[in-house]
Amino acid sequence: MFNTLVEQASRRKSSSWKRRLVPWILLTPGAAAVLITLGYPLVRQVLMSFQKYGLKQQFGAPAEWVGLENYRTILTDSYFWMVFFKSIAFCAWTAGITMLLGISLSMLMLRLNKVVRTIFNTTLIVVWAMPALASLTVWQWLVETRSGLLNYVLTSIGLHQFKNFNWLGSSYWSFYLVASLVIIWASIPLVSITIYAALCQVPGDILEASAIDGANAHQQMRRIILPIISPVIALIGVLQLIWDLRVFTQIYVLQQGGGIAEETNLLGTYVYQIGIAGGNYGVASALAMIILLLTLLLTGKYLQMLLRQKDEKR
Description:
The chain is mainly α and 314 residues long. It has helices spanning 2-48, 55-58, 69-75, 78-110, 114-129, 132-142, 149-156, 172-200, 204-212, 217-245, 249-258, 261-264, 267-277, 281-313, and strands at residues 51-52, 64-65.
């Protein structure tokens, strides 16, 4: 009898150990792939940020170890700080407007009938799925100097100062205005659909009870709905900040049509200009590490929100 009990306990222990091991076995291939595809480039980038690494090193010349010199070069450069603060301001502007419009559209979808809402959702998905280069081509046509639709409309209503106006090359203000419109237009669909999905999860009985107690639509939205979906809004807001801080494609493509790349650089295009275009991979790697640090700070906030949500659900 005693031997039987010992045998059963041993089997249960073995079965429990196997159940704990299975998730780690399943995670191993994916973790290995991530370490190989992302780990090596990251380690290489960290090493290059402490080296003098240029075109000669690309062809086999040994890299000279310079310690913190690349970081000192960046942090003592006034142009870097100008680009840095422009990037922060641009990120805050585009992410803020995107969130406001996304929340507004998601609330609007709640009040649309089923057919109109389906068409609206489909349109948002098409906009979100459109390749960035294809949409940028359309935007470049819209703001083209001589035959662009924007200049045509403005001059047609009497604003003749916009005849042949170069939106992408006259100043960095007009360039950033167009760039922010492009980024906001491409980002709104995901924000709207995500927040709309959260709105659909708000319990209907709570809204019915508040309506019986005399709460109007505005009070329900401000005191019930928004507090319930605030974790989702916070999470998508942090993600939007991360995406807009690292924006590259839109700015780079628009710069090709504007001709004022030096004045309109953000952190993403500045790294490209120093590294790929300028051949100074050591300084570019150091700059990329600074951007990575900023991203990690935002990602830490994102993970903190996720853990807080998990604790609140327990």
